[in-house]
């Protein structure tokens, strides 16, 4: 059927000459290559409507020197008209510059929900390529200048990163996060590959950590050069770790902060000497940093190490003698308690009062442990509670001046208040804090502690909707557990420099490659 002429013409933009509505042969109309919309999508429903009612809104075209017409507005209508079997369409013909064409197409398409973020971003970039300023682009499209600037940052994302995203429908926030790494195209590619999936949050966290590291390293290198210190680049060994050069002992490892101040502090503690500096830029993130070395006498170091080992052995034996009575009592009393509970579990009928016992144990154990049992150096359950509730537990200066028996306990008060108002949430928070406190870096290096502490925690969190990333899943499957032990009975994984090994020797890297002073 012949199409109906439109009921109302498309309004001409300011500066356009008065134009007439004409019926144009569709074979003379070419899609605009600068159209922000890359894909017109499914136009079958629109084609059905055109068959029934005709085209009810004109197309806008501009003439070309070849006697043809370039489509400005109406790409979906043109595609639907072809599908409907029409040969001519109603169109407004207007002489438009390339800048005017881009402005009109961007304004029209930006009002549609199906225009992708990348398409909109590229549309703004196209305007700037024609000399339009950011302020002008914002004014012409009715958007804020801040939005236009953010879209332009997205437009700068490279093709490699865009292709990594594939067909994933990324949100504006996702694209803006990727765009924020404009100085690191490789990180943009990693993020684009993870976008839209369960590994996104973990990928963003790692990318930010990597960016922070790179920026710090660049600043540190420049500062070392300014100070006239020649820093040697080191390479990791086959275990992805670094060995100290022969004749040197690493005393300091820097991964953040003002390196000039660190060098000055090192000099103050070494009679004004300047450290030997090594840059560990490659390998795993936990092995990287800038190392400060002091020169060592290997024979003196060996003698000192043997003396330390002898002292450690003596101290260990003394502690064993002192703790033997308590250990024996703990074993005996534990056996009695286990025997009692075992008897209860074997009873055919449920023991009287077991419900109250469960309530008392769960609530009292959680609260008392948080408020009274965390004087140990490695406890952080109290911090976990503060983080998950937002309730401060540090107290104020006034409490510090009170006698110990009168001082307030802000943690106990906050927990007690929550129990009164929302006992279920309080119970969950307390138990989660306790479970979280039991998971440390050491947990992930032992299959038994993973099964005992980490796996149950993740199972609980996943029932609440937590999405376990691939990295976390690999760790739960033992990816961080050391594979082999070396000849000295020490595992080949990471160990803190200040921590003695199983044989009592320090694990710091030194001149001879053997255990030496804690750093």
Fill in the keyword field for this structure.
four-stranded mixed β-sheet; 519 residues; disordered C terminus; five-stranded mixed β-sheet; alpha/beta; 19 helices
Strand tally is: 9
Strand content: 5-15%
Q: Describe the biggest sheet?
A: 5 strands, mixed
User: Uncertain spans, ≥5 residues at pLDDT below 50?
Assistant: 1-18, 374-378, 395-401, 485-519
Order of helices and strands: EEHEEHEHHHHHHHHEEHEEHHHHHHHH
Count of separate DSSP helical elements: 19
Query: What is the spatial order of strands in the main beta sheet?
Result: 1-5-3-4-2
CA-based gyration radius = 35 Å
Q: Which oligomeric state applies?
A: single chain
Structural class category: alpha/beta
Compute the separation of the termini in Å: 88 Å
What is the averaged pLDDT score? 76
- The coarse silhouette is extended
The percent of residues in helical segments reads 40-55%
Protein name: ParB/RepB/Spo0J family partition protein
Domain ParB-like N-terminal: 22-110
Region (Disordered): 476-519
Pfam families: ParB_N
Can you characterise this structure?
- The structure is a single chain.
- The protein has 519 residues and is α/β, with parallel strands linked by helices.
- 50% of the residues lie in helices and 8% in strands.
- The protein contains 19 helices and 9 strands.
- Strands 1-5-3-4-2 form a 5-stranded mixed sheet. The protein has a 4-stranded mixed sheet with strand order 6-8-9-7, covered by helices on one side.
- β8 (276-280) and β9 form a beta hairpin.
- α4 (117-129) crosses α6 and α13 packs across α17.
- Belongs to the ParB family.
């Amino acid at each position: 059927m012949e199409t109906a002429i439109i009921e109302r013409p498309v309004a001409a933009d300011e500066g356009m000459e008065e134009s007439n509505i004409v019926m144009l042969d569709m074979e003379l109309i070419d899609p605009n290559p600068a159209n922000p919309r890359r894909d017109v999508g499914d136009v079958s429903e629109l084609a059905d409507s055109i068959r029934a009612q005709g085209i009810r809104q004109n197309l806008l075209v501009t003439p070309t020197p070849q006697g043809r017409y370039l489509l400005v507005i109406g790409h979906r209508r043109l595609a639907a008209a072809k599908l409907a079997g029409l040969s001519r369409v109603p169109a407004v013909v207007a002489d438009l510059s390339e800048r005017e064409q881009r402005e009109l197409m961007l304004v029209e398409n930006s009002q549609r929900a199906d225009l992708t973020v990348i398409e909109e971003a590229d549309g703004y970039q196209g305007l700037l390529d024609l000399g339009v300023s950011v302020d002008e682009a914002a004014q012409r499209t009715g958007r804020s200048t801040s939005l236009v600037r953010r879209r332009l940052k997205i437009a700068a994302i490279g093709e490699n990163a865009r292709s990594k995203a594939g067909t994933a429908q990324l949100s504006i926030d996702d694209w803006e996060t990727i765009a924020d790494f404009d100085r690191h195209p490789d990180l943009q590619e990693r993020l684009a590959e993870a976008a839209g999936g369960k590994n996104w949050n973990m990928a963003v966290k790692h990318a930010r950590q990597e960016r922070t590291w790179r920026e710090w390293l660049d600043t540190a290198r420049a500062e070392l050069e300014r100070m006239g210190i020649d820093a040697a680049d080191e390479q990791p060994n086959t275990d992805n770790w670094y060995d100290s050069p022969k004749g040197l002992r690493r005393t300091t490892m820097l991964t953040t902060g003002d390196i000039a101040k660190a060098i000055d502090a090192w000099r103050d503690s070494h009679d004004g000497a300047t450290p030997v500096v090594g840059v560990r830029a490659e390998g795993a993130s936990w092995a990287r940093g800038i190392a400060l070395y002091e020169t060592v006498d290997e024979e003196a170091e060996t003698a000192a190490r043997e003396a330390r080992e002898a002292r450690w052995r003596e101290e260990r034996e003394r502690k064993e003698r002192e703790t033997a009575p308590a250990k024996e009592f703990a074993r005996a009393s534990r056996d009695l308690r286990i025997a009692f509970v075992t008897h209860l579990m074997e009873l055919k009928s449920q023991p009287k009062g077991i419900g109250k016992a469960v309530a008392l144990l769960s609530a009292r154990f959680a609260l008392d442990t948080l408020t009274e049992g965390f004087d140990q150096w490695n406890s952080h359950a109290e911090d976990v509670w503060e983080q998950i509730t937002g309730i401060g537990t540090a107290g104020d200066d006034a409490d510090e001046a009170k006698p110990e028996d009168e001082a307030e306990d802000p943690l106990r008060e906050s927990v007690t208040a929550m129990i009164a108002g929302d006992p279920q949430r309080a119970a969950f928070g307390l138990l989660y804090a306790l479970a979280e406190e039991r998971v440390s870096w050491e947990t992930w290096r032992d299959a038994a502690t993973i099964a005992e502490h980490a796996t149950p925690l993740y199972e609980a969190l996943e029932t609440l909707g937590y999405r376990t990333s691939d990295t976390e899943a690999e760790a739960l499957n033992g990816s961080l557990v050391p594979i082999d032990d070396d000849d000295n009975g020490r595992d080949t994984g990471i160990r803190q420099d200040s921590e003695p090994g199983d044989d009592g020797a320090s694990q710091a890297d030194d001149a001879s490659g053997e255990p030496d002073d804690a750093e």
